[in-house]
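Q: My labmate handed me this sequence with no annotations at all. I'd like to see what the chain might look like in three dimensions before we decide whether it's worth expressing. Could you predict it?
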Amino acid sequence: MSAAPTPGAQALAAEVSGAALMDTLRHLARFVKLAGTPAELESLQGLQARLTAYGYATEIVFHDAYVSLPGACRVTVDGRALRAITHSMALASPPGGTRGRLVHLGAGAEADFAGRDLAGCILLVEGIASPAVAARAARAGAVAQLHVSPHEHIHEMCISPLWGSPSPETLAELPRSVAASIDRAEGEALIARLAAGEAPEVVIEAEIDAGWRPTPILVAELEAPAGAEAPFILFSGHHDTWYEGVMDNGAANASMLEAARLLAQHRADWKRGLRLCFWSGHSQGRYSGSAWYADEHWAELDRRCAVHVNIDSTGGVGATLLSNAPASPELAGLAEAALQAEAGQSFGGKRPARNADQSFHGIGLPSLFTTLSEQAPGGVAMRNALGWWWHTPDDRLDKIDEAHLVRDTRVYVHALWRLLSDPVLPLDYRGNAAALVAEVEALAGRLGAALDLSALAAEARALRDRAEAIATLPAASRDAALMRLSRSLVPLEQTGGDRFAHDAALPLPAYPALRPLHRLAAADAGSEAWQQAAVAARRCRNRLAEQLRLLRRAW
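A: Here is what I predict for the chain of 555 residues:
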């Protein structure tokens, strides 16, 4: 019997089944999947059975993680109770509740905190609760944050800026205040009272169940025909949810299973293996599952993993915008091809943000996608454009558009098929490397004699030359060369430069590893701030030049 012909990416994507996707979703919609709970495990076991039937080797791995489950919350204003929730990783209130002077702080931006004595206050902040505001509140000595939702719906959030579970070195990064959210109408009434000079008495009572507990990760793997040491693609999404979480992240889990089913049917054509990971601890552990996995499997991921593909919140009703999907610059061509072929939209060039289980940039794994489809602009200002029901009890089956779910899954199948079967990995580092050279040379020009960047610039140019030369290598050698190059460039592009640590869950600029050099360039020469910045800049220069030199020797 002759082998089935090798499908093209579009042909395989066209086989995505809406019926299969919805069947998986109906299974997932039965469970409230809080991290480390029996219901989460039961739901995960159902996915495991399906993946085993598709031919994958599966296991559920348990590890201890620091998880914070919000409990009951009561906010009273002059004795009147408001509808409210508290947030993951916030502090529990003491007996009798948390009290303090209520201060309106706008959106809680850095400028809103500047020059204000907020010690012991309750901060009234407009907008959905966030790690950035929690970090500023901790520095200001506030006792609590009271967030005002942009509409009548109140959104569950994890407010910790600490990525993953705490260590002795990072424990102080956990939030140090009580936090709660109320709806827009109640918040606007409080803002108006403060503007009129009133001083309403606010009491926040919040219960939090926080601590270390075993949490599961479902791992499903199918090796490439070349064997166990062949490179592999990591395809991941979180499984824990707020409430039933049918869109976030049940729909993405359904997309993962459907992609796994279709791709496995053509394993004979794979050049690389496929490993799926379903994380716990995303929603209530600030990415504790993926952070632990990156730490525990660092050496193997460094040696064998070529690309990390992440998936979140596919198929939402009204989710018609796909051009904002993020991708590492070296994967822009693949993102464009998949989006154009399956959704008729262009890739907008968005870089990965510091969210969505992006725990692998330090190792040097380029990343493709996280949230793929969003609501069109023009609605309520949300932290993520994923629909008003995001992180609320209303995230149920009726928020899924089957046609959108099929479309989104096709984009993933298309991209994954290319990553698994292309003769050479579809990575192009030439633009990234040239941009790094330009960045370092511009800094060298600004700093002049104040800091000699010649060695770092030379290493950056060597990296650029290597990126250019890879295209001339024999096809059989290019994958290994691209993966080695990624270990140099991705940590520079996406992290503070430490390949073994995790940056905080806060916004990062492009090339964050160069921040100490930018800080020195922006300081007034000879000032106290300049002297301190110079200390950090010298160390940054030396560390980065040496890291690039060592990685270059490994080429």
